[in-house]
Amino acid sequence: MTKGKSHHPQAYGDEAYWDNRYSQDAGSFDWYQRYSGLSPIITKYISKTHRILMVGCGNAVISEDMVNDGYQEIVNVDISQVVIDAMVKKYKDVPQLQYLRLDVREMKFFKDATFDSIVDKGMFDSLMCGASAPYSAARMLEEVRRVLKPGGVYMLITYGDPRVRMSHLKGPEMNWSIALHVIPRPGSKRAAESSSRVITDPLLLNDDGTLGPQFGLEDPDLHYVYVCTKEAPVKPAVPDKKKKPAAKK
Q1: Where does the chain cross the membrane (predicted)?
Q2: What are phi and psi of 76, to 5 degrees?
């Protein structure tokens, strides 16, 4: 994914759309935030020794910046073969980075519980703007959860506030423990204002999963970071076969 002219949203899930877009605009671009703005949150939740999956990597430099900050293994995937070929060539001498052409809705290439952490900066949002948005988003989240290890973190960076994102993240079988952070959009009025709140402090949510009145719905000056931890499955108790039945009186 990258910047450029506006396009019809129905094409956002199509490989041909992104191949054409990257062919026309090969310059690197990071959606929403650069690593410098996200690093306090990323380093809080994701260890530098983790095996990380970057979904919808596009031609962003966030993975490069993370490697420069000490991260050791990042697997980057995108639906566009054009951008994957370009990134493989660009980072051929960076062994910490791997690039693969994959559709995040169908990642059978990876076994279950392959990754310690998954970072999503705009991928979910892209699917939500495309055709069959609810189905595509649900398929992606199912695959994300499948390839993530128990106790692992799925970090979703998005423009979507809790009112429009929590219903997806709290869907059936998701079983996430979720912490929410907000970051001012670079160049926005909120970014220019001083604040005593530290971005590494998660926000408290209302019972319905929404934010308090100090945050307007769909605030264009904010980006939201959902830190979703995959809960380990609860194993049923196994009866002790060696235990003798109580003696009858």
Answers
A1: none
A2: -105, 130
In this prediction, the residues of the chain whose per-residue pLDDT falls under 70 are 1-13, 15-22, 25-29, 192-198, 207-210, 212-218, 233-249
Residue 173 domain-assigned (yes or no): yes
pLDDT of residue 205: 76
Structurally, the chain folds into a number of domains equal to 1
Other residues' Cβ atoms within 10 Å of the Cβ of residue 25: 13
**Residue 16 contacts by C-beta under 8 Å, 6 or more apart in sequence?**
none
* Residue 243 covered by a domain: no
Predicted structure pTM score? 0.84
Distances (CA, A) of 30 to 33, 35, 42, 64, 120: 6, 9, 16, 11, 12
- Please report the pLDDT score of residue 163 as a whole number: 87
pLDDT on residue 193: 67
DSSP SS3 for 181: strand
Which among 66, 63, 76 has a CA at the least distance from the CA of 43?
66
The reply to whether 20 falls in a domain is no
Question: Which residue has 């952490």 as its token pair?
Answer: 117
Q: What are phi and psi of 152, to 5 degrees?
A: -80, 165
Q: Which range marks the domain in which residue 38 is found?
A: 32-191+198-230
Residue 25 lies in a domain: no
Here the CATH number for the domain that contains residue 220 is 3.40.50.150
Q: At a CB cut-off of 8 Å and minimum separation 6, what does 227 contact?
A: 41, 45, 153, 154, 155, 178, 179, 180, 181, 202
pLDDT tens-digit readout, 134-153? 899 999 999 999 999 999 99
Residues 36 and 41: their CA atoms lie apart, in Å, by: 10
